[in-house]
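ok trying again, last paste got cut off:
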Amino acid sequence: MESQQNVGPCMAALGMPEEMIQKMLAPKNVISLSLTENTDGSFTSSTEQSLAPELNSTTTFKIGETVKVSKPWPMVATITKSSENTWHNRAVMGDKTMVSESTVNNYGMTIHATIEGTALSFTEEFKKVSPK
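nice, full thing came through this time. structure:
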């Protein structure tokens, strides 16, 4: 992750402990995100964090289908695609729902998200590493 705005308050609203938020947002924490299309048409998304490995996760999903996720915290997520470069994710975590839009561009990927029922939102910017 290259930059972020307001991630901490949003993660706190979702119930993430402050200690975990601090590790996730530490300047030396390297967050890597990869997305791979599989031969069956599904996608595998993996996130790795150098200083917060308890937040590492790998999820395989198909566009438009709902998938249950257990790590890093339980949720039910549905990902849809609105264009070639834009994906929408609706993740329900207990009584909280996060809605995000991920847009791939020549630099990498930008994620904008909101927590439903609140005024909270955040933005994350990821730099493309591969393929160049």
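cool. The chain has a mean pLDDT of 94. The first strand starts at residue 3 and ends at 5.
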